[in-house]
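Appendix B, example 12.
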Amino acid sequence: MATTSSDGLWIEEWLSTGRFSTYFTAAGGSRSRALELYEWNAKPSAAFLHDLSHLEVGLRNACDRQLAAATAVTRCS
């Protein structure tokens, strides 16, 4: 299997043929355009996951505060 960047076959090895084929088809068979589409798609996905991680931390901390408060009330009673 070739893995040099000049032949572009590393893309299927890295992403998988099935995953890359979606972008390859959308790009009309252009490997370079397909990779551009993949990168274009990855950027908003990464941005969404960044924001989602902040939400997750906030929810986890809110749950912790509520559980700590409920436990403190129970221990004092």
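The CA atoms of residues 4 and 10 lie 6 Å apart. The chain is about 80% helix and 0% strand.
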